Amino acid sequence: MGGNCWSAMVRNGRCTELLSQKVSKEECCASNSVATAWSVEDMDAGTLFFWRVLGGGVPCYACKESCAGVHCGEGKKCVVRKGRPKCVCSPDCRGKNRHKGPVCGTDGRSYRTICRLRKRACRKKTSTLAIAYYGHCQSSCDRIHCPTGKHCLLDQNLTPHCVKCSQRCPSVAATGGTKMVCGTDDTTYQSACHLREAACHKGKAIPVAYKGRCKRKPQVEGRRHQHHPAVDCVWYSLIDLSFTT
Description:
It is a single chain. By secondary structure, the chain is of the alpha+beta class. Among the domains are: 3-62, TGF-beta binding (TB) domain (Extracellular Matrix Fibrillin), CATH 3.90.290; 96-148, Wheat Germ Agglutinin (Isolectin 2), domain 1 (2-Layer Sandwich); 165-211, Wheat Germ Agglutinin (Isolectin 2), domain 1 (2-Layer Sandwich). Helix content is 16%, strand content 24%. A hairpin with a 4-residue loop joins β10 (103-105) and β11. The chain is elongated, with a radius of gyration of 29 Å. The two termini are 57 Å apart. The relative contact order is 0.09.
């Protein structure tokens, strides 16, 4: 008769999350996971419920007592803490990027080093957290040093981002002049793609005022400010830029 296999030992040598029943210790511990645990007794449903829910967990034994044979995965390493092996985040910070000092993450937070950013990404189990640009997070592009090949761009919320401006926009011959748009900077662009490309190089978002070639505004006496027609007026976000961040 086998025992019970558990996903992890929670505290005081007890387990609550059941993986499988009526298995041997060898079968339960074959995965070499540092978290898996095993209990000797094969309990009936009633007894198992009592121990798991009311009794604080079933007494169990960790499959691994050392880091021997443990594979934690990329960016992690096995360490023994309180007599039990555990996989902890330990990213390799010896890569080609030799930047020293603070960096701004894509989550808008400043990190003292690249290594700290990578450790947080590991702990949060996310692949989207990366380096936005070098230095502390800023509110403008004035003091931002983007990685090679990227340019600083302010989005519609005036938040800086480092993006790649390289994008293949359709040629004038391909569009036939039918895709023209007028930007709020009173400049006519061959297409919305060309507008986004110009905005990227200028480092500032340029909303589309309306479709078509920009029209000359009549001078109205007594009015100092002119407004663009509210036709197809849109603010585009960084997602709409179609550039790689």
